[in-house]
Amino acid sequence: MSTATLDLTAITAAATEAAKVTAAASDAERASWLTAVADALDANVTELVAIADSETSLGTVRLTGEVARTSGQLRLFAKVITEGSYLEAVIDHADPTSAPPKPDLRRILRPIGPVAVFSASNFPFAFSVAGGDTASALAVGCPVVVKAHSGHIRLSERTAEIVSEALAKAGAPDGIFALVSGREAGTALVQDPAIKAVGFTGSIPGGRALFDLANSRPEPIPFYGELGSLNPVVITADALAERGQQLAAGLAGSFTMGAGQFCTKPGLVFIPAGTDFAAHLAEASKDKPTAAMLTERIAEAYPDGLRNVADQPGVAVVSGTVQQDSLADGAAPVVFSTSAANVLERPEELLEECFGPTTLLIEYANQDELAAALAKVPGSLTGTVHAQPGEDVSALVEQLSGLAGRVLFDGWPTGVAVNWAQQHGGPYPATTSLFTSVGATAVRRFQRPVAYQDAPETVLHPALHDSNPLGIPRRVDGVLTLG
Amino acid sequence: MSTATLDLTAITAAATEAAKVTAAASDAERASWLTAVADALDANVTELVAIADSETSLGTVRLTGEVARTSGQLRLFAKVITEGSYLEAVIDHADPTSAPPKPDLRRILRPIGPVAVFSASNFPFAFSVAGGDTASALAVGCPVVVKAHSGHIRLSERTAEIVSEALAKAGAPDGIFALVSGREAGTALVQDPAIKAVGFTGSIPGGRALFDLANSRPEPIPFYGELGSLNPVVITADALAERGQQLAAGLAGSFTMGAGQFCTKPGLVFIPAGTDFAAHLAEASKDKPTAAMLTERIAEAYPDGLRNVADQPGVAVVSGTVQQDSLADGAAPVVFSTSAANVLERPEELLEECFGPTTLLIEYANQDELAAALAKVPGSLTGTVHAQPGEDVSALVEQLSGLAGRVLFDGWPTGVAVNWAQQHGGPYPATTSLFTSVGATAVRRFQRPVAYQDAPETVLHPALHDSNPLGIPRRVDGVLTLG
């Protein structure tokens, strides 16, 4: 299926019309739309999971959990907008005594307009048609046009039908939601003047190309891309000595989860030199089953990626087979190891994401070498520390805070909680913005501040009325109030 | 003066070192640095204003006021960081009962790193060396490298000396602040890997070139540019009938203020067709004195801009002289008029910013024509409505909200209050981001969220400790608390 340009223009024109209605809708109305979509997904979970599994091979357990996460996410955003802080309502009353006199000024965040959402291959629900980007854009009053991922077209279409029907039944306006597919439709979408922001989850080359396109428009628009991440893990000598086997088991579970196709897969693991951790990890990884990859293209890229690492001088294969050219067998886990000194010598070759069940152990001789090698790691979604209680890891935490959006302790980065505190985004290339694509604050990507000066109350959003009829948190004359 | 590349590398390396100290400094410390700079500016106001006047011809009254605004701005940001909301501290405690179990997650905004600030020509204090961009970056812990504007180099250097000395005396680290000058230094700054964000105030061509440069870096960085704005004003028939002369006087004062070199100058004024407003405005404008322009380049561009408008079919000169080629006499006010129908016919030619004391009256035949012509106006910093009490202007306000960052009622857009509710930014080309460059929330441009998962309290920022030792507003388990 491919969406012709004429269709696209009609779709984005309808989105522009819908934007007027969605911007004027109350938070309660928009919350009810999100809840309706969540209920509809849950009601159709069996059918949706069956389609998804046939297209992605991710398995019904994982996929059923992902539907729950997706509907839960929609419900969280309903809660977020009902709570009202997301409007960032600020009132500064006039001050005629100041020099110069200050006018009455009231600021609120408004929806940015129609948003294009590019679905991911690896989360056919949570980062796809009705995923976090769609949910956060709809929540704040932005119509959404989703570009389906070619890896799960039937699921995308069926999900879109369910979403559209639920929205219509709940009273949302025509044009609030549409699905397009095909590469040209995606490119045209990013260039369409009606589109005011883009959410994207995918590869670095694909994402960068669209990022460049969004920025080269006559009117550039924000491009919120999540592109790629190595997710470094650091294990201290003390932690390794105390619980090496347990750490190996945890790591094996994390890097092979979902056939290593998580954006938070731990791809680099820094360990002290001269330990038996590699052997433990080889042992823990050897029984991990092979798994079918999401798409043929991803399956083909995996052995290429493995060879790229294996071909580098100073790299050893700890476990698994680099030659995996029979796609029919699925992807098998491979663990590599090298030294931090070698990473310092060829950072570009060794610090490249390889999508699939593989990870690279990096042995560091001392703290300085660890810090130097970590400094070469590109921006990541996560950074993880495994240390013993009482160890001083403050310098390491500070360094990880500079290169990642989420810093974990004694855990594994796969698995992303959807809540108020989540930050799923980090320095480029992890993401292309200072925002998160998961969790409550994801809505801020699709909002634009507007201040009203000396406005009659009749034209103001209720959030800015003096009496605070919505009862929401606001800042009034510099003081935060709970409403 | 021009800054050699070698110097620049040393400067940004020092900024990177300083960033570690500024990020670790407490809010109280950083607030004291800002206050020290504010005090130093105020203490040197006479000397600074004298230099500024000799370089910009803006006059001592205006410039003295601008110093007060600039030091007041520094003090506002000291207040903002002391209040603590700007950290957006969020704590979600672990929930082992949820499926999957939720970890303890705590999110905070951290400084993005060294920031490059490009000064503006038209506000030698408030949007320059120690202006809003610098103040907001320093406030949140980002070192600043300022690119001086060539229109007031001596002032920039003297201000930088005062700022550097005040920061050093107050205990701020070496490398926290530097000044560079010359076009090549500016270009190199935007491309320097140590620079993590850019603040810019200037022209559309210059700003767009740097925006493109920032986005084409191997690691793109946010470019917060304020580029150009037409600031449309709409006057209703009722308002005109009731107080036409008063409106003409107000408009004449606003469009000629500072020789029309304000980014919020009302450049387009929509009025009902067939009134005597143009005559009133001609009368009100005729005695406005000529004024020297900020720089030779701006002075030379003004008559060119006037001719561009005058040469369009359907444009009449209401008052003033288009031929102003004797720069020695200064710039004289010129008022043009045309019809909304003509704007619809040649929007690109007529809807272009002309820096200087000129404005274009646009006569609309009816509301539909007004709406259609307004729809052609590019993104603006402000949009203004003059209406009578009780008139239904909701559709107009909605339209202006879509094209501007600040919507004013019965006032004039020149003059920008510095407070919590201010929004100085609008859709492109007014600005290149969803943020403001004036007011409390300007700090958010230079902050990056980081979440800490299951972290021991010893490595966490005090804002994220359970006991809330800083006593600041936070969101805990979804509930906003005042601290």
From TrEMBL, chains A, B:
The lineage of its organism: Bacteria, Bacillati, Actinomycetota, Actinomycetes, Micrococcales. Residues 7-419 form the Aldehyde dehydrogenase domain. InterPro entries: Ald_DH/histidinol_DH, Ald_DH_C, Ald_DH_N, Aldehyde_DH_dom, Aldehyde_DH_Superfamily, ALDH_KGSADH. This is Aldehyde dehydrogenase. The keyword ATP-binding does not apply. Keywords: Oxidoreductase. The keyword tRNA-binding does not apply. One of its GO terms (molecular function) is oxidoreductase activity, acting on the aldehyde or oxo group of donors, NAD or NADP as acceptor. Coiled coil: none annotated. It comes from Paenarthrobacter aurescens.
